[in-house]
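Minutes, project check-in
Item: structure for the 158-residue chain
Input as provided by the requester:
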Amino acid sequence: MLMLAGIVVLHITTVILLLVATIDNAWWISDTVSTDLWGRWELSNSVWHYTNLKNYPEEYLQTVQATSVLACVFAILALFVFVAQLFTLPKGQRFTFTGILQLIACLCVMIAASIYTAELHDGKTEGGYGHSFVLAWISFVLTFALAITYLILRKKSE
């Protein structure tokens, strides 16, 4: 029972980290600019102003946006499927479908962070990666660990 609670808490934590990484405005930061997947905040006259992302290749930006949202969707769906499988899966069976959904979420967040790194901020010297970018990579590790856990885990026969 304690292991089950730990898995659920880890899964909920991963979903929260994915949502924060996708929504928060700190993928690329400097002293005067804060950029997320949806827009850019520029500091002028001590006031932050929102602008659209102009200097990013649109096809890469849309890919990063889509895969980040899909990672959130698949992680949330995997949590609901896991809870449903707890009640419907026969004893001794593996949580394969939940593991596959979690693996897809893992791949989505890896694709988003990789494309963001390779294509959207290649060679820029002003600024650095923010906490949302770091949270995306931490979410990748956690979703991968959960996917492996779900693929190995069997429903106890009591």
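Outcome recorded: Strands lie at 28-29, 33-35, 40-44, 47-51, 128-129.
No further action items on this chain.
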